[in-house]
Design a protein that fits this description.
It holds the Pfam family Aldedh. The chain has 503 residues and is α/β, with parallel strands linked by helices. Helices cover 36% and strands 20% of the residues. The chain has helices at 63-82, 85-101, 103-114, 118-138, 177-189, 202-215, 229-238, 251-262, 286-298, 318-329, 350-365, 397-400, 416-423, 439-448, and strands at residues 5-6, 31-33, 36-38, 42-47, 54-60, 146-147, 155-162, 165-169, 192-196, 222-224, 242-248, 267-271, 276-280, 308-314, 369-372, 387-390, 407-413, 431-435, 453-456, 475-476, 489-496. It has a seven-stranded mixed β-sheet with strand order 15-16-17-14-13-18-19, sandwiched between helices. Strands 10-9-8-11-12-20 form a six-stranded mixed β-sheet, sandwiched between helices. Helix 3 (103-114) runs antiparallel to helix 6 (202-215). The protein binds nicotinamide-adenine-dinucleotide and the ligand N[C@@H](CC=O)C(=O)O.
């Protein structure tokens, strides 16, 4: 079956998007395969979570079209990997520059489909572009090793080779940066990519594809497939041609994909859920700690894998901290991400609001105290007002589950050993925060905490140069940093024997 192709017409995009953008060609509703915009069999409706308005549709590809996309990426792999690193880097840098030139439009699209504030969306575009630049630069440094030989008259070494076609499946909470963090690494090292964005936020992904085309990626190197996650995931996992699978999303779906990918023994990289502890040490200024905890909890309306869900405070400062936190939380301005001064947008859809309420109800039924947060003030059906619960316990869902909503839970602690045990009492192990000054306590925590990333006295911990990733059920592998290539490359060892030695 040949691909149904459509030139450049975005016939169904509603007026809800176009008036906001300076470049209408960034709005794409079709999938992007082998350098063409492609129709699927049905449409998936995309909503603005702040207003519930329909903002457009993306296309749902059928399994045969996913197979065709895989074949295109596979065919493009050979020529792409053969380019010199400098040549791939130049295309990546053009993509980077185009992303930044179109920052305002990309951020606007993100607010429309994801709901975050315009400032946060702009920040995400910068963050996303930084990975493209980083990996364009790293492409020139994808070294192998030479190995002191234990074999007479032989030279031993490794080559770092691109693994092949990489499937990248991404979530809706960071619809831009979760793509670039994967795609830039894969492309720079010489892989071709098939990107499957979340159906709630396809427009950010498709705009990136439009810019990738303008940057000059050859046909088949950069592909975006849209449609049903389970259907696409299963075709990608079963295909022998797809050699790497990089997934960012929930631990539940990550486990499904790991099982499916086992059938073809793919290299799997999993960036999954988190349930971050935020630990306040006794020597920390309480107002400063509360300010940082609010920032760490409510970024992206709590829909952030790094969100500080369980906040541990010494008994002696407990009530003072709750008061300071409630005061700081009251400064959050909830509303449509386009409105001036808004710092927190809606949740992604109505079920997320219901889940937030369920967490609060469960906690209150099990003895938590509601310190602040009234849902009567919510400015729309998909909004959940920032909520502060005290006295949360490990028996409550708000402690156990990745809550992914603007509900903060605080609990007191007595001593470091019991604190460490409680902070680790979760299946997740992505990120942890420590606020305080006592270097011995910080060191003890750094060693005791079972998390892939620990940030001391800083809410911001991410960036292109750091190895982002978790332990336990928060995932496998690292993104960004000099380790980012590991997920998309393999070492080929060679032994060059029978060499004559001089002297
Ligand atoms: N560790 C990280 O770096 C990181 C970063 C961002 C988000 N996340 C996690 O992502 C989750 C929120 O995002 P979400 O709700 O979009 O996650 P999700 O797991 O529901 O979906 C993620 C992606 O997987 C697709 N998908 C769903 N079911 C699938 C299946 N059976 N097979 C293949 N693909 C499938 C979705 O369409 C989407 O594209 C949270 O758990 C959050 O912690 C983790
Ligand atoms: N906030 C994370 C993404 C997780 O949701 C990041 O900074 O990469």
């Amino acid at each position: 079956m040949s691909l149904q192709l459509q030139s450049v017409v975005n016939s169904k995009v509603t007026d809800a998007i176009m008036p906001y953008l300076s470049d209408a060609r960034l709005v794409r509703e079709l999938a992007y395969i082998n350098g063409k915009w492609v129709h699927g069999s049905q449409d998936i409706t995309v909503f603005n979570p702040a207003t519930d308005d329909v903002i457009g549709h993306c296309t749902q590809l059928d399994p045969a079209q996913i197979e065709q996309a895989i074949a295109a990426a596979d065919a493009a792999f050979g020529p792409w990997r053969k380019l010199m690193a400098d040549e791939r880097a130049a295309i990546l840098m053009r993509w980077h520059d185009l992303i930044l030139e179109n920052k305002e439009d990309l951020a606007t699209l993100m607010v429309l489909e994801q709901g975050k504030s315009l400032n946060d969306a702009r920040g995400e575009i910068d963050y996303g572009a930084s990975f493209v630049r980083w990996f364009a630069e790293e492409a020139r440094r994808a070294y192998g090793d030479t190995i002191p030989s234990h074999i007479p008259n032989a030279q031993l070494a490794t080559l770092r080779e691109p693994i092949g076609v990489a499937a990248l499946i991404t979530p809706w909470n960071f619809p831009h940066a979760m793509i670039t963090r994967k795609a830039a690494a894969a492309l720079a090292i010489g892989c071709t990519v098939l990107i499957k964005p979340a159906s709630e936020t396809p427009f950010s992904a498709l705009a990136l594809a439009e810019l990738a085309e303008r940057a000059g990626f050859p046909a088949g190197v950069y592909n975006v497939v849209t449609g049903k996650g389970s259907e696409i995931g299963s075709v990608l996992c079963k295909s022998d041609k797809v050699r790497a699978l990089s997934f960012t999303g929930s631990t539940r779906v990550g486990k499904v994909l790991l099982e499916q990918a086992a059938s073809t023994v793919k290299k799997c990289s999993m960036e999954l859920g988190g349930n971050a502890p935020f630990i306040v040490l006794p020597d920390m200024d309480i107002t400063a700690a509360a300010k940082a905890a609010v920032a760490a909890k409510f970024q992206t309306a709590g829909q952030d894998c790094l969100a500080a869900n369980r906040i541990f405070v010494p008994y002696t400062q407990y009530e003072a901290f709750l008061q300071a936190f409630a005061e700081e939380m009251a400064q959050i301005k909830v509303g449509n991400g386009f409105d001036k001064d808004v710092t927190m947008g809606p949740l992604i859809f109505r079920q997320a609001v219901d889940k937030a309420q369920e967490l609060v109800d469960d906690a209150l039924a099990k003895g938590a105290r509601l310190i602040a947060g009234s849902q009567q003030q919510a400015p729309g059906t998909n909004f959940f007002m920032p909520t502060l619960l005290a006295d949360i316990t490990p028996q409550m869902k708000v402690f156990r589950e990745e809550n992914f909503c603007p509900v903060a839970g605080v609990l007191p602690y007595n001593d470091l050993p019991s604190l460490i045990a409680q902070a680790n009492d979760t299946e997740y192990g992505l990120a942890a925060y420590i606020y305080g000054h006592d270097i011995r306590a910080i060191w003890q925590l750094l060693h005791g905490l079972e998390f892939g990333m620990v940030s001391v006295n800083s809410v911001k911990m991410t960036g292109h140069g750091i190895p982002f990733g978790g332990v336990k059920q928060s995932g496998l592998g690292r993104e960004g940093s000099r380790h980012g290539f590991d997920e998309y490359s393999q070492l080929k060892y060679y032994c060059l024997g029978g060499l004559m030695r001089e002297g």
